[in-house]
Amino acid sequence: MTVPVFEGAHTRMPRLGLGTWPMRGAECQRAVESALGLGYRHIDTAEMYGNEEAVGAAIAAAGLPRADIYLTTKVWHDKPDGASFRRAAEACLKRLGQPHVDLLLVHWPSPRLDLPSVLAAMARLRKEGLARAVGVANFPRGLLARAVEADIVPIAALQVEHHVYLSQQRLLDYCGPRGIALTSYTPVAKGMVAEDPVICRIAARHGATPGQVALAWLLAMPGVAAIPKAAGAARQAENLAAADLVLDAADLAALAALPKGRRLVDPAHGPDWDA
Ligand SMILES: NC(=O)c1ccc[n+]([C@@H]2O[C@H](COP(=O)([O-])OP(=O)(O)OC[C@H]3O[C@@H](n4cnc5c(N)ncnc54)[C@H](OP(=O)(O)O)[C@@H]3O)[C@@H](O)[C@H]2O)c1
After folding, report:
1. Which residues are catalytic?
2. Which secondary-structure segment (H or E) carries 134?
3. Which top-level group of life is the source organism from (predicted)?
């Protein structure tokens, strides 16, 4: 199985990665080591997950060339200005034991966000090689457009919730022509897809699993990457093999017809998603 790579305008991202929330400590280290052993080359973490040390230890233990791994981390929304963002990003690298990350994201917008100052901090981190590329997560389209149009630093990726039950077409329409990667989090809808009769029927026809169908649906969209979390090797291997599943037009139509308004991650600190 070969994981396709998205050749974006500002980053080159393997289109399947491992999500690491909410794993911590030894469980997280084991999961990341297992994933790297199976062939995952894209790992997603964040300062808020409290697992950057474990992720860094797993990367070190894997002994792979660093250039082969695409590592993302994110700075929490309580660092709304350039100075605090910079300090937090440096602390992330220290915990990860890494000289750089491949992608550094603003984890959530907040009303206190001083966008130009954070973008300027990200530009500097990128220039200094501490972050190969930068981007944002959980930004609605209007705010994403402000970040892009500020023209302070190229926005390489947007990470948002995206799965068979939640359309992100407005964001895809924005990102696609600009070569911005859209990284889909919660891509198997936290496992809900396993109970869905439509998805189970498609899976049975292909000799695949519902999780693989959900991931293949995302991978059928150009510019989309998915970062399912799975603690154990069997499920990690199952999810990775989704890269080989090709859905036909009838499958895609049936999946497109599923209701698309179900948001599973909607904390009080989240933005107005339609902004
Ligand atoms: N930027 C953000 O604000 C944000 C928010 C949420 C998540 N994320 C990132 O996205 C990653 C993934 O999102 P998520 O963890 O919320 O949701 P998810 O990947 O959709 O679901 C993970 C859950 O589904 C199970 N699962 C995994 N593969 C499966 C399969 N093929 N079939 C059935 N069940 C399966 C996992 O169980 P087991 O582990 O027991 O296998 C786990 O309980 C996170 O780990 C994190 O890195 C980012």
Report:
1. 49
2. strand 134-137
3. Bacteria
3-state secondary structure of 157: strand
Strands 5-7 and 12-14: antiparallel
How far is the C-alpha of 117 from the C-alpha of 122, rounded, in Å? Answer: 9
Q: From the CA of 18, how far away is ligand 1's center (Å)? A: 9
Q: Is the dihedral of CA 146, 151, 152, 153 positive or negative?
A: positive
Among 185, 192, 217, 238, which is best to mutate for testing ligand 1, by the most ligand atoms less than 8 A from CB?
Answer: 185
Residue type, 146: R
Q: Are 273 and 263 in contact (CB under 8 A)?
A: yes
Pocket (CB within 6 angstroms of ligand 1): 19-21, 44, 107, 137-138, 159, 185-191, 194, 209, 211, 227-232, 235, 238-239, 265
Out of 3.90.1150.10, 3.40.50.620, 3.20.20.100, 1.10.3210.10, select the CATH number for domain 5-191+221-243: 3.20.20.100
Query: What whole-number distance in Å separates Cα of residue 147 and Cα of residue 155?
Result: 7
What's the pLDDT at 2? 84
pLDDT tens by residue, 119-140 = 999 999 999 999 999 999 999 9
pLDDT 10s digits, 156-205: 999 999 999 999 999 999 999 999 999 999 999 999 999 999 999 999 99
- How far, in Å, is the centroid of ligand 1 from the Cα of 188? 7
